[in-house]
Here is the input.
Amino acid sequence: MRTAVATEVRRPSAVRALTTLLAVTAAATVVVDLLNWWYAPEQGFGLAVRSGWALLRAFGFVLLVGHVRRGRTLARPLGLILVVTTVFAVGRLVVPRQGVPPLPGIVGFVGLTALCLAVLWLLYRSPAVAGYLTRHRGRLVIDRQGISWREAPPRRPEVAGWLLTTRVAAFTYSPLMLVPALVAAGTILDGRLVAGPAVAFWFGFALVTSYAVLFCTFFVLRGRRWARGLLVVLTLGVLAVDLPLCWWLLGVDGLVRDGVPLMTAGGLAIYGLWRASKGSGEPAPNGPGGSVGREEESSRDRR
Here is the structure.
């Protein structure tokens, strides 16, 4: 068995700038989250859960750095979803239940938003970055030359980048429901026992949704039209269940803090399906809807 040795390729300056910017954004996410916790007037269980969820974004940016350094095609849709959810996750921590947000929290949120916008600009508007993010994950390959572990395009047909964006957005449904469900579980500990069955249903529905999304997106990436319709129905069903539960168990504040991010993810998933169907015949290499299949010329250059 042999292992393919990849030739070291010097990364473009835009790619190096992007990796540095992602590292700074990850650090800024931690700093802003700690500032929000420090200046929050109420440091309860709900804030702790939402702060922990926001801190996970820092780990997400670290993973994104690895995808960018390796030139993975997944980096662009993952970066889009990560940026959007980070802005919402941190933004809902800045605004208190009552009164005016503290000045350090506002400054930190504005700075983090600027960093996220810069990340998006490099991911989707830089030709150098777009030309670099064309690689696929490595896998075990058996051919006439023997057995090797090397980069290989996926066996499924080439798909539009917007479909990958839809897939990543849909995968956020379950965690975006689990966070408010966990916050609502804290109300049971405070004596609201009547909410117990609803919270248990919420947790179960979130877990079932994760498997349903996995099933739908598997066939969406393989061009099945019925899977696209099923994913739209699933998205609407998720919103129909999650939003009323947020309003009933967490109030209007919870509906805004936890319902709006899920609505944004659902809207982005449906928009990605629409853009993919609209531009399926005209791939845009510099936009998120461009083809993510690897070009032969790029393949030869990177090897």
The longest strand covers residues 138-143. The radius of gyration is 21 Å.
